[in-house]
Specification:
Length: 433
């Protein structure tokens, strides 16, 4: 077996998503790719997701036995999916003549806070991984999980294996964190919704943060935050074909300021409306505090002005659909306490967003986006903006048409003619998918 190399070897972290390890053939394919990297001389850590729809199936299993599964026990259950993948891949790699060791998140030294089902990584104590790499072993780490400061198993939220991979890459000072997935990289829109979406050669951390926050599942939001904060080089690429994917880089490195880089969407929104809120200071603060205490992430908020001083106001906001039950549980006692009118909900909401670093200084983007949606007959229910993003809440069934119309109108498609930009704003560097 190879021992520690004479010259400093490259360290790579390779993460394979659920589709990439869905069956025996795919596990073998991923294992071969891992072995190839090792044979090229790299120190290799591979982070694996649960196979195929395992996490969904485990979640459904929990709901079969309990309407509100205990979060600690949920984590015990969910963490098993990624362990299965790692043990199987280690078996394949051993059969291929290399030494592999599979580790749970806890064994890998991933320490988190105690927020079950959505824990945050606090520390990575990678000594065991380092030792195994020094021995020439390939290390397989179960993604999406860690051990809390209270020594319980935790999981990192949906898509959390991306964050495991980035955190390990940071702790090991890896040369690159490769995210192998079922599409060829980060695209100008979800290629499953927009047939001519374009693969981006590179995307800035700032844009990728906005994209991840607004529904582009390809990288988990926390993974992008972690990579930006720790300077991790992320390469998002296909596990089924060779060739480069998309590099996520700092804005200085990308040197591109596209007006609009991508259209993203989410179908998993819910709207909550509170009517007849008492018009006095502190009420909005109380509403948001009970939601925050219940761990509910509030996205867009609208509160209308009361018609006259002292009259009642209405407030609407969106939450992830999966948090709707918790939001209602948290709000109901407050509604009774403060004498708020009604608590109404609509769980069939979606969101479509435009993201682009060049938007900062070009207000025309919003005008064009709203007109395009209007002409397509899509009713905008709420709007939120950041310097490089415009998001609109629309009905869930209108999401697809909204995404396609915006993608076409801003000429983001692979076949679109890219006119010279009169303001000297750079166009994105792109290639065909
Ligand atoms: P994995 O299981 O490998 O982690 P995910 O399902 O979490 O994969 O993320 C990959 C999926 O993200 C793709 O199959 C694609 O449908 C979706 N996606 C959404 N928006 C984008 C985008 N802008 N670019 C690439 N993929 C996207
Ligand atoms: N298996 C988990 C999920 O489906 C984590 C991941 O795949 O990143 O969300
Ligand atoms: Mg994912």
């Amino acid at each position: 077996m190879v021992s520690a190399e004479a010259s400093p070897a490259r360290t790579v972290v390779m993460k394979f998503g659920g589709t990439s390890v869905a069956d025996a053939e795919r596990i073998k394919r991923a294992a071969r790719r891992i072995v190839e990297a090792r044979e090229e001389g790299s120190r290799v850590v591979a982070v694996l997701s649960a196979r195929g729809k395992t996490t969904d199936e485990l979640t459904a299993m929990a709901h079969e036995v309990s309407p509100r599964p205990d979060p600690r026990e949920m984590d015990m259950l969910l963490s098993t999916g990624e362990r299965i993948s790692c043990a199987l891949a280690a078996m394949v790699i051993n059969d291929l003549g290399h030494e592999a060791i599979s580790l749970t998140g806890s064994q890998a030294g991933i320490v988190t806070d105690t927020s079950h089902t959505r824990a945050r990584i606090l520390d990575v104590r990678a000594t065991r991984i380092e030792a195994a790499l020094d021995e020439g072993q390939i290390v397989l780490v179960a993604g999406f999980q860690g051990v809390s400061t209270a020594r319980d198993v935790t999981t990192l939220g949906r898509g959390g294996s991306d964050t495991t991979a980035v955190a390990l890459a940071a702790a090991l000072s890896a040369d690159v964190c490769e995210i192998y997935t079922d599409v060829a990289g980060v695209f100008s829109a979800d290629p499953r919704v927009v047939a001519d979406a374009r693969k981006l050669v590179q995307v800035s951390f700032e844009e990728m943060l906005e994209m991840a926050a607004s529904g582009a599942k390809v990288l988990q939001l926390r993974a992008v935050e972690y990579a930006r904060n720790h300077g991790v080089r992320v390469h998002c690429r296909s596990s089924f074909e060779d060739g480069p994917g998309t590099f996520v880089r700092s804005e200085e490195e990308t040197m591109e300021r596209p007006l609009v880089t991508a259209v993203t969407h989410s179908r998993e929104e819910a709207r909550v409306t509170l009517t007849r809120l008492p018009d006095r200071p502190g009420v909005a603060g109380r509403v948001m505090t009970v939601l925050a205490d219940a761990g509910v992430n509030v996205d867009m908020i609208i509160q209308n002005e009361p018609e006259s001083p002292g009259a009642a106001a209405d407030m609407s906001f969106t939450v992830p659909r999966s948090d709707l039950l918790s939001a209602c549980d948290a709000l109901e006692p407050l509604r009774a306490e403060l004498g708020i009118g009604e608590l109404a909900t609509d769980s069939a909401m979606g969101k479509v967003s435009l993201v682009g670093a060049g938007m900062r200084s070009h207000p025309g983007v919003a005008a064009k986006a709203f007109s395009v949606l209007g002409e397509a007959g899509v009713n905008i229910q709420m709007i939120a903006t950041s310097p490089i993003k415009i998001s609109c809440v629309v009905r869930e069934e209108e999401v697809d048409v909204a995404v396609r119309e915006l993608h076409a109108a801003f000429e983001l498609g692979a076949g679109a003619v890219q006119p010279e930009d009169p303001r000297g704003v750079h166009r994105p560097v792109v290639s065909s998918p």
